[in-house]
Design brief:
Strand order of the largest sheet: 6-5-14-15-16-13-17-20
Largest sheet: 8 strands, mixed
CATH topology of one domain: FAD/NAD(P)-binding domain
Number of helices: 11
Radius of gyration: 21 Å
Bound molecules: 8-demethyl-8-dimethylamino-flavin-adenine-dinucleotide, P-hydroxybenzoic acid
Oligomer: single chain
Helix content: 25-40%
Length: about 375
């Protein structure tokens, strides 16, 4: 097989890249290790920055998102038993965020690609990348028991944090920056009306809690828990009682459809390019979910990569490809800073000096238009470089 861009991973990064390249007449083949059903049912991110919605709209994959997504103009910070509304739109000249499940965006992009008859292979095995320093890198894999090879001009590593692309770069050519937090999130999806029209980020002496949603009848709720938390120790009753305690009155209960523990990590690999291999999304970086940035950052990387590849395939040279990593990392580090800041501000960690400083900071934040503007402009999404 032969293609211009071999894309490994059918998450938001890989699928959006394939679609945006297709719009520009550039061929790609997408390889995905898991089944279509698995990829379409993985419950993950849910919040899109305004720029992400615009990007998905321009990519022609937002018809259902624009119909079903829930537009939010503000959020609530709750601490010391009191709620404080952050007027995101008012503080950012009208910018908003949209709630739309990542797996719904993934479903939409898969359907559009398959309907167009474009190559997207699920359940592939033993994916490996070769000759990354040459102008003709190769991907090998197994499909239905057969060994296969794809000759590419470029390979896009969109295979997430546990993929094979980043580990294929010689360790001497990569620097990794890592921070693991001493807590995690227990997340549930429940058949219950959201407790509020907007998201509630709550800080409580028992730990952080977040009330978000997927629709007017499905709630998504998170609780700070131990890093090594055993989900089986959390009965439905224990979960609801912890949520009521941390979020206060108004928690709407209903059947729990799904439960899981999400580890909290900040990670960046530099550079995001090795020869003809370009990393995008979680393959290159991870943020803790508190700032709701992971999927948005994957989308931002893809925008930069598409421009670089468009110039390259149009014969305008490699200047943008050479700048790909630096351009992406500029945003990545700002988003890392914001995600780290939201995480350390809102989670309970001991009872010492740092804890008192965090409470003072929250108090300051909610009383300062300047500090709230900083929060709001990061939350709705920093402007793109292009
Ligand atoms: P993905 O989605 O992990 O996709 C990578 C794909 O690659 C496949 N793969 C392989 N395919 C072929 N060969 C191999 N060897 C392969 N190895 C792996 C995988 O099966 C997978 O399909 O990465 P991508 O595309 O970079 O997208 C990143 C996002 O998924 C991630 O950043 C977000 O989900 C993070 N995140 C959030 N982001 C937001 O923007 N807003 C949020 O509100 C938000 N909330 C969250 C989150 C992540 C969470 N978890 C579970 C980590 C909430 C949670 C709980
Ligand atoms: C979600 O809807 O899953 C979500 C929203 C905001 C966050 C994290 C997760 O900060």
């Amino acid at each position: 097989m032969r293609t211009q861009v071999g894309i490994i991973g059918a998450g938001p990064a890989g699928l959006l890249l394939a679609q945006m390249l297709h719009q520009r007449g550039i061929d790609s083949i997408v390889l995905e290790a898991r089944s279509r059903a698995h990829v379409e049912s993985r419950i993950r991110a849910g919040l899109l920055e305004q720029g992400s919605v615009e990007t998905l709209t321009q990519a022609g994959v937002a018809e259902r998102l624009l119909r079903e997504g829930l537009v939010h103009r503000g959020l609530e910070l709750r601490f010391g038993g009191q709620g404080h509304r952050v007027d995101l739109a008012g503080l950012t000249g009208g910018k908003v965020v949209t709630i739309y499940g990542q797996q719904e965006a993934v479903k939409d992009m898969i359907a559009i690609r398959l309907a167009a008859g474009l190559p997207l292979h699920f359940d592939v095995e033993d994916v490996a990348v070769h000759d990354l320093a040459s102008p003709r890198p190769r991907i090998t894999f197994r499909q239905d028991g057969q060994d296969r090879v794809i000759d590419c001009d470029v390979i896009a590593g969109c295979d997430g944090f546990h993929g094979i692309c980043r580990p294929s770069i010689p360790p001497t050519d990569l620097i990794a920056f890592d921070r693991i937090y001493p807590f995690a999130w227990l997340g549930i999806l429940a058949q219950a009306r959201p407790m509020s029209e907007e998201l509630i980020y709550a800080r409580h002496t028992d730990g952080f809690a977040l009330a978000t949603m997927r629709s007017h009848s499905i709630s998504r709720l998170y609780l700070q828990c131990a890093a090594d938390e055993d989900v089986s120790a959390w009965s439905d009753d224990r979960i609801w009682s912890a949520l009521r305690k941390r979020l206060g009155d108004g928690v709407q209960e209903g059947p729990i459809l799904q439960k899981g523990v999400t580890a909290m990590r900040s990670f960046v690999a530099e550079p995001m390019r090795h020869g003809r291999l370009f990393l995008a999304g979680d393959a290159a970086h991870i943020v803790p979910p508190t700032g709701a940035k992971g999927m948005n950052l994957a989308i931002a990387d893809v925008r930069v990569l598409v421009r670089a590849l468009e110039a390259f395939f149009a014969g305008r040279g490699e200047a943008l490809m050479d700048r790909y990593s630096a351009t992406c990392l500029d945003r990545v580090w700002k988003v890392q800073r914001f995600s780290w800041w939201m995480t350390q501000l809102l989670h309970r960690q001991g009872d010492g000096f740092d804890e008192r400083v965090r409470i003072a900071e929250l108090d300051y934040l909610t009383g300062s238009a300047a500090a709230l503007t900083t929060l709001a402009e990061n939350y709705v999404g920093l402007p793109y470089a292009d």
